[in-house]
Amino acid sequence: MPEAHRGTILAFDFGLRRIGVGVGEPETGTAHPLPGIPASGDPRFTAIGPLVAQWRPAALVVGLPLAESGAAHDMTRRAERFARQLHGRFRLPVE
Description:
Mean pLDDT: 91
Number of strands: 4
Oligomer: single chain
Number of helices: 2
Helix content: 25-40%
Radius of gyration: 13 Å
Structural class: alpha+beta
Order of helices and strands: EEEHEH
Low-confidence stretches: none
Distance between the termini: 11 Å
Shape: globular
């Protein structure tokens, strides 16, 4: 992981109904799940804000869903949009 991204990482597994959330520490190689959050509209960002405040992550990670062939599909584009929204709202690096 690049030096600028050292520290706590909040990770998101984007879904249409729920978004999975996890927190990890790359330096210690530890990670654990957090409760999922609603996927639709502003409630998701309302739920993410306190997580960012609590964990003070150095970066955010959004899983990128791809087809078995490696091709992008509708969920890929939705996850990428969610990642851009995270960056816009929280001004943290998003991978």
